[in-house]
Description:
Layout lengths: L2 H18 L5 E8 L5 E8 L11 E10 L2 E6 L11 E2 L18 E5 L3 E8 L3 E8 L4 E13 L6 H23 L1
Antiparallel strand pairs: 1-2, 1-9, 2-3, 3-4, 3-5, 4-6, 6-7, 7-8, 8-9
Helix pairs in contact: 1-2
Protein name: PEP-CTERM protein-sorting domain-containing protein
Keywords: Signal
Organism: Acidiphilium rubrum
Amino acid sequence: MTIIRRIGIALATLAVAGVATASAGTYDFSYQGGFGNNIITGSFTTALKPVKYSGGGYRLTGISGSFDNSAIISLVKINKFQGNDNLFFANFANGADNYSPFDANGISFKDAANQFVNLYSDAGVIFGARTCSIDKGTCTTSSGTLTVTPAALPVPEPGSLLLLGTALVGLGVIARRRAA
């Protein structure tokens, strides 16, 4: 097997690896409820493509962080708490609720203290948290300040390796032509 073929196979492998490492959107978020309660911080990931007929909403696929010093342990399945749809609108201007990352149904998660929380938007102006403690049988609603920002993107190593491999192939072709 010639060196050119070996390099070609190596580049094809790197290209496949680069495609396999494509990731969904990752965002950091924080929510500060009124009167200093309901402090929620963390990050979530979304699917690669928007949900059909959602107006551009991306389904949440994972979440981590804390709610009032209690670890967030999981997303709540769709329509299982406060009508949640677990949609995130990355383009706030075109979101379902006028400049809001969430719609009125919101995103829901459960924490280690056995509380269910739903973060939602009302007309893109008011951001709220609905909280129910399963152990105590109580529910509260608060309004507050919500911040969502894209998480720092990792360095695309497979892309860098592909670029390096392409340069090596080019050098190999030049060397072969000079030798001929």
